[in-house]
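>> received
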Amino acid sequence: MQLDVIRTIEEFDALKEEWNALLACSASAVPFLRHEYLAAWWRTLGGGEWKSGELYVVIARLPDGKLSGVAPLFFTRAKENEPALMLLGSIEISDYLDVVICPQGTNAFIEALFEQLDGPTAPPWKTLDLYNLLESSPTLPVLEAAARQYGWQYRQERLQHCPYILLPEDWDTYLASLDKKQRHEIRRKMRRAESNDDPLRWYIVTDEASLDENIEAFLGLMEQDPEKKAFLSQAMRSHMRLTMQAAFQGGWLQLAFLEVGGVKAAAYLSFDDGGHLWVYNSGLNFDYSEISPGWVLLGYLLQWAIENKRLAFDFMRGDEEYKYRFGALDRFIVRATIRR
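>> returned
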């Protein structure tokens, strides 16, 4: 395979179609590795998480010119202030990251990548610092073996829980999979909300003309939570707007609202991609806490995902209790550190 290095945003933007086509066959076909997501992330440097960085995206092509591998890297000063190569999307706002490669090509691509990173044209990195890979990623054992060949130190540490639900064929089967108490709780909260004096409505944003208005409404609900309000810096707002607009244009945005008497009481920002619903963030109007609007909307979204034949409902990072009460199974992401 022939390697090339992408260092400018113009070169990066030109890869969109073939990048996403390759991602479709990757073992880590997650929305955070879609080209348009990472393009938005780079333009704001992760919503202001990073002060500076240099693109260093290593791509591989087959002899016929077809894109066969992508290591979406950038060069920066890591959290430990060491010169490091890191995955685009690192660290805080992209739940799952990896290289983009069809599984059968992983060994050859990592071998070629390490040869490139050990060469004279690579940045002066000390650490290859890779966050948020799923513990089951086939990339990890290949990275460890390749590091050993070069005499580099390899360390892997578990980071966070990432609960998810494997979805059955129908809603009743899903409810039957829960313990009796939790099944009753979901039904009770949904019935109570539906019997409220003010009419209940939930919807998914599909009209492009109203997208920006609904994005601002979502951010407004988010900032009712003091922690989320502190999180929503101007740079982070810019990142989230760009991400939602790009996801809408790409057809994988699910921005959903629950209204009570015409007032927005809850919202979920999810990505509908690859047969999975990836639940990314939420906002609540605390004036409606008595009807548990977040739980109710979550119930509707689970019903929607099952009825529309989605395979999984992924809560992503965080071990909040409610995720397990909805029947989520546990899995983990890891950080792989290679030091030379």
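>> The chain has two domains: 2-161+335-339, 164-314.
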